[in-house]
Every structure is written in structure tokens, then in C-alpha cells.
Hints:
The protein is an alpha/beta fold. About 35% of the residues lie in helices and about 20% in strands. It has helices spanning about 50-55, 65-70, 75-85, 150-160, 160-165, 175-180, 200-210, 225-245; strands at about 15-20, 25-30, 35, 110-120, 120-135, 140-145, 170, 185-190.
Amino acid sequence: xxxxxxxxxxxxxxxxxxxxxxxxxxxxxxxxxxxxxxxxxxxxxxxxxxxxxxxxxxxxxxxxxxxxxxxxxxxxxxxxxxxxxxxxxxxxxxxxxxxxxxxxxxxxxxxxxxxxxxxxxxxxxxxxxxxxxxxxxxxxxxxxxxxxxxxxxxxxxxxxxxxxxxxxxxxxxxxxxxxxxxxxxxxxxxxxxxxxxxxxxxxxxxxxxxxxxxxxxxxxxxxxxxxxxxxxxxxxxxxxxxxxxxxxx
Length: 249
């Protein structure tokens, strides 16, 4: 905003102090037209170095206000930048599917599926994050956020790559919706003692530690459903790229 000693709307020099804006600067209100403005606004354009730090810090357990304190810049500017980055994320989550069951050392594809609980706005609005992980590569093949219903499980199944829907063996818990979604020849319901879903459960712990809005007993809860979906998508894309870099060529 250009530094002015008059109202940017009507040009009047009659204005009064009217609180402070988010960065802490003095806010003013014109006595003639009622327009509010900051007379001496700072140029808070995000630099390329700040953008790089923001992209890295969004994969850590840090709030937006903490990010502003650590990186600098306004919270609106940082959120606008991250909104553009989220819109550019691919639908395939940077997954590198196994081309053939022969590429797996045990001769077949295996997927672990489990759910993670969180709420949006208030605790009565419960949302479940269904996640499917490749047992061998540890990549997250698909996820879906919704209620704990048959429809949500169907959407998670639809989000999986076609090769996994056709050939993979699925390891799940005893939740009743999976047998009705996964073909009868593929599901393998197990108990916790069998330890066949330990990798996906360990990923749940990683997800809660790295995405602040999923942490238990936290102030960083989401007010809109699109916010946790975007945060989870961003972290999973970063996670899959890290796992893909470790895969043998």
C-alpha cells in the first residue's frame, strides 16, 4: 500500500485511530467516508527464500502464526501462497505404483488400510481419514476424508490405482464396511495382534506429529473441511516424493 497522509478513498485528511491490524500496525478510519486503512503500510511481499521456507515448514508441526513469526510476512500473504501451491498438487499424490507383481519381492501387491479420527469446527462434527498404504514401498496410495460410512470406504477404493484394485491383497481391521467394498477374494480382515497393519498405524502417528491440525488436544483445529484435506494432501505428496526417492531404480 502506498504511504499516504490522506484517505485513499476520498482524499480527506480527517481520520482517527481505529485499533490495529494483524501485523500490529496502527489502523485508521476516515471521518468522512468511513474507509479504514493503514497510513504507513510496510511492503510485506514474500521473497523466494521465504517461499522455500514456507514450503518446508508446512510439513512440520507449526501453526500459521508461528510460521509468520519464523519466516516473516503477513498471514494473508502466506496463506494465499500456500493456497496456490495446494491447487497445483497432482491428484495422483506423486505415487509411483508398482508396474507388476513381479516387481515386489514377495510376488504380490499388498495394501494396508486404516482410519484416522479428527473433528472439524467442533467435536460433534467427526471426520475420518481413510488411508491406503503400499505395504512394500510405504507409499500412500490414496486417502479420503469423510464420515465412517460405506460411501466413504467406496470413495477410498475408487481413489486407488487400478492395478491395486485388481490384484492387491488388502490388510484391514475388523471394521464392517471393508468386506462390502473390497472384492471377496481380496480383503483380509485381521486383529490388532496379527501386526499386519503396523505400518499404516505408524504412519498415523507420523501424520499427527507433522500436521498440527491432526494433533490430539490441540488448538490448531480446522474450521472448514477443505483445510484438513489440503494439509493432508500437501504432506502426503511430500511424503510420497521422499519414499519414491528411496526406491531402487
